[in-house]
Design a protein that fits this description.
The chain is an alpha+beta fold. The protein has one domain (about 20-100). The chain contains three helices and four strands. It has helices spanning about 1-20, 25-35, 40-45, and strands spanning about 50-60, 60-65, 70-75, 90-100. A four-stranded antiparallel β-sheet has the order 1-2-3-4, covered by helices on one side. Strand 1 (about 50-60) and strand 2 form a beta hairpin. The chain is elongated.
Length: about 100
Amino acid sequence: MIRIGLAAAILLIGTVAAAAALPPYWQRKAEIDAITDSSDVARRLEQHGPIDMIAHMGDEHYQVGAGGCTLDVFVVDDASAEQMPGPRKFKLQTGKLVCK
């Protein structure tokens, strides 16, 4: 009986750890949603028109385009967030705005 309980506990621990992170598709969606909802991104691009392009440039790096301008946006861990199981807690960091 103890062996069954121990085996069940090990299986449950593995299940919780596996469910902690979002799958890549859903993580990317959360990052893009955060970009489109960001007041900082909107403020930096508002004079150039609405966002008409978001390109994933690599791990944790996006380029957001509006009019003839592009803005680098980086996804960084939110160090102020309490470490809890679940989706990754992140913040956006805007980089250089380049206009043609």
